[in-house]
Specification:
Layout: E1 5-13, E2 18-26, E3 30-35, E4 43-48, E5 53-56, E6 67-71, E7 79-87, E8 92-97, E9 121-128, E10 133-149, E11 152-160, E12 171-173, E13 179-189, E14 198-205, H1 209-212, E15 221-228, E16 231-236, E17 245-250, E18 256-264, H2 268-277, E19 290-296, E20 307-311, E21 318-320, E22 323-326, E23 335-342, E24 345-352, E25 359-366
Antiparallel strand pairs: 1-2, 3-4, 3-6, 4-5, 5-8, 6-7, 7-8, 9-10, 9-12, 10-11, 11-14, 12-13, 13-14, 15-16, 15-20, 16-19, 17-18, 17-20, 18-19, 21-22, 22-23, 23-24, 24-25
Length: 381
């Protein structure tokens, strides 16, 4: 199939001459995000890097439900998406295209926001809701800086131009056509002394997506998943978001695994359940441990909890005999999981490689009754 591409000619007025800059992008690599079953788009998405992930703003896909991507190329189908990884503190989400989907166009590539300064020109794309089409515009950067968002410091750029509704998640490109930022929000600003009102757009740096291009969350994170009756809770450090998926590995042999999704962050129900069970003590758990409520994809009533929760894994678990492995680094060296006992508790851990590898994570889980110790050197503390 011949690749469909768009060519945007941008005439830049310089001191001595007019310079023509060509921005090329594939019509299959820019499109709209919809909630499955709904006609109206809710934001913009674009295909990034060799992993061919779809990137959008995290707030576009923050609600529960399923989503689709449809490229702007005429006749393009709606393609189901699943969440690969989310970066709420940067308002970015990386979505996986359905395995059977095929996109022929060249994906966007990442650029470097830190090469830009106020006065530089950028190009930005997004779904123009009033005109019901994806539009492309140029703008001059008015500000660059750092902002606090959801407790995270994130780099941003601002410019005057078109914006909401529909532009959220759209790419902001440098004049080499590379993605330097992703559209986040816009607000109106009244002109001075009766000047016209303008729309200020803010886009967050896409730098965190450098690891996402390799097909993973910046760093897969771990936690402990426990069941309290029908309540399923994840105790973990690090950032998680409602709707984010994770894998549950049951580390006591024969090992097994399941999938679940985050339903609520910082769940008061999970906090109350944990307070009554005291599986995590202040002396053996980090102060930054947070509790989040989950919903499992299958019935786990008979599953051997506690489990190890793996958030942001680039690949699914693999059953290898009585063990479960995951290639978290996508380097052909599968990570493994262990559980061992010492006195009154379990030591849960994740390791790089099957034997003799480096311990990636460890958490002590207090049982409150005596058990026969079987931990080996390096599996505790």
């Amino acid at each position: 199939m011949q690749r469909a591409a768009a060519l945007f000619l941008l005439a830049l007025a310089t001191v001595s001459s007019a310079e023509e800059v060509q921005i090329r992008f594939s019509l299959e690599s820019i499109g709209v995000i919809r909630k499955a079953g709904q006609k109206a788009p809710i934001g913009t998405g674009f295909v990034l890097g060799e992993s061919r992930a779809v990137v959008t703003a995290d707030h576009v896909v923050a609600a529960r439900g399923r989503y689709t991507y449809q490229a702007v190329r005429e006749g393009s189908p709606e393609i189901p998406l699943s969440v690969r990884s989310r970066f709420p503190g940067s308002d970015l989400a990386v979505l996986e295209l359905a395995p059977e989907s095929e996109l022929d166009g060249d994906p966007f590539q990442l650029g470097d926001l830190f090469r830009l300064a106020p006065g530089d020109t950028v190009v930005y794309l997004g779904w123009n809701a009033p005109k019901n089409k994806v539009a492309l515009r140029e703008a001059v950067i008015s500000a660059v800086g750092k902002a606090s968002y959801l407790g995270t410091t994130v780099d941003f750029l601002e410019f005057i131009g078109e914006g909401i509704p529909g532009w959220s998640g759209g790419p902001v490109l440098d004049l080499e056509g590379k993605v330097v930022a992703v559209m986040h929000e816009a607000w109106t600003k009244r002109g001075v002394k009766g000047g016209k009102t303008v729309l200020v757009n803010r886009a967050f740096s896409a730098g965190v997506l450098g690891e996402a291009e390799k097909g993973s969350r910046a760093t897969p994170s771990f936690g402990v998943v426990e069941r309290h009756g029908t309540l399923l809770c994840l105790a973990a450090e690090g950032d998680v978001a409602p709707g984010e998926s994770l894998h549950l590995v049951f580390p006591q042999e024969p090992q097994s695994w399941a999938t679940a999704r985050v339903v609520a962050r910082y769940s008061s129900e999970c906090e109350a359940a944990q307070a009554s069970s005291s599986h995590f003590t202040s002396s053996t758990s980090p102060a930054t441990l947070e509790l989040h409520r989950l919903r499992a994809a299958t019935d786990l009533a008979n599953a051997p909890f506690p489990a190890i929760g793996v958030v942001g894994a680039p690949t699914a678990p693999i059953n290898a005999g009585d063990r479960v492995t995951m290639d978290l680094g996508k380097d052909g060296m599968p990570e493994t999981f262990r559980a061992c006992t010492s006195k009154e508790g379990l030591h849960l851990s994740a390791w790089s490689g099957a034997t003799g590898g480096r311990r990636l994570w460890h958490q002590y889980y207090y049982l409150g009754y005596d058990v026969e110790p079987d931990c080996r050197e390096g599996e505790t503390g």
